[in-house]
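*** Fold description ***
***
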Amino acid sequence: MTRRLLELKASLGWGGTGVSRAAQSGVRARTCPSEARGSLIPAAFECGTRLSKPRPGSDPSRVPYGHNQPVARNPLEDVARGLRMIGERLSQGGGGDPADWISDQLDSLRRPEPARTLPELQAELDALIGLDTVKEQVRALLAFLQVQAERQRHGLPEVATSQHLVFLGNPGTGKTTVARLLAEMYRAMGLLRRGHLVEVDRAGLVGQYVGTTALKTDRVIRRALDGVLFIDEAYALAPADERQDFGPEAIETILKRMEDYRHRLVVIVAGYPRLMHHFLRSNPGLRSRFSREITFPDYSTDELVAITHKLAAEYEYSLDDDATEVLRQILAGAARSEGFGNARFARTLFEQALNAQALRLAGVEGAELAGLERSELMTLRGDDFRAAARALGEEPAADQPRAGLFRRRR
C-alpha cells in the first residue's frame, strides 16, 4: 500500500520532500490552520492565501506588496498531502486491517442521530408485537436506573449495579431491536452520550493470527464508546474445544475494557439460552459483570401472523382471508426448535410470497394486464403463500392439498 501511495504522489508531481509546489517555485505560502490541526484532507479553498508580488502591469497602489491575497490552491496538492498523512497514520497503527482504521475515522466524523425522548422510545417499545415479559423487564430496569439517578441527585448513596445485559433467545425474537431501543433510552436518561448501537459477532472480534485479536477487539470497543456494544452469538467466543482458539483473548479484552470504560460503555451479549450459559461459565469475570438476564420467548402463531400483516402494511400489501388462513397453517405446522427463525421465518415467507405473486401476475397479458386494478397489485392470495411454503421446504399434506396442515419436506 505504501508503494501505491508513493506512485500516486509521483504521478502528481509531488516529490515527497515535504515542500509544496508553491515553496519550490519561490513563493511563500501561509500556513493553513486546518493543516496545523492535522486534518487528513484539508479543504482546497479553506485558507488559500499567500504572499505574492504584484502582477506585471497592475496598480501597486491597489495591491500593496506583501499583502495577503486569497487564491485557490491546487486541489491535487491537498489530495497528495492527505494521502501522505494517511500513509503515516497507517504505518504507525501497529498492525490491523487498514480498511478498519479508515472506517474508524469515518465513524468518528458521523454526526449522531437526533435524540428522542424517553416517552417516545417507551411508546415504540410498547408498540412491538408480543414480548410482554421483555417489556416488563425493560421497564423495571429503566425505573431502577431513574430512581438511582434521583437518589444521587439528592445526595443519597447509589447502589452499584451492572448495566451490562444478557439476552437469551432464539433467532428472530427481537433482541437486536430491543438493544437498539435500550441504547437510545440510555442516551435519553443521560447515561450514555451518543446512545448508538455497534453490532458485532465473533468474526468482528477475533483475528486470524497471534496478536491481532486484541487489536480488533479494541478497535470495535472504541467505536462503541458512549454507546452499546451488542455481541450476537457471543457463545462462539468460548467454543467447547478452546485449543488454539483466540476467542478467550477477545473475552479477556472485553472484560478489561468494560472496567476501564464502565461509565462510557454498555455491553449486551446475546445468543441461544443453552449455549449462552456455557459462555457465562467459561470465564469467572463474565458472570459477575453480566448479572441481569432478559429472556426473549418464541413468538406464538397469532403473533407471527400479526407480524406478517404489519410487515405487509409497511410496503402497502395486504393479505386476503385465504392468504391469512394459509399463513396461519404454515406457521402452526413449523417445528419450534432451537433453530426456528420466528420473525425472520415470517419475513422470509412474506418475501417468497411476493415472488409468487409477481410470477402469477406476470402471466397476465394483453388488455387484461393493462386492466389490473391497483388493489390486485397490493393483494397477496393463498396460492402465493402455498408457493412460498414449497419454496422453503414446506408443503401441504397429500390428503388435504389446499386447507390441510403443512409439513416440512424431508
In short: The chain has 19 helices and eleven strands.
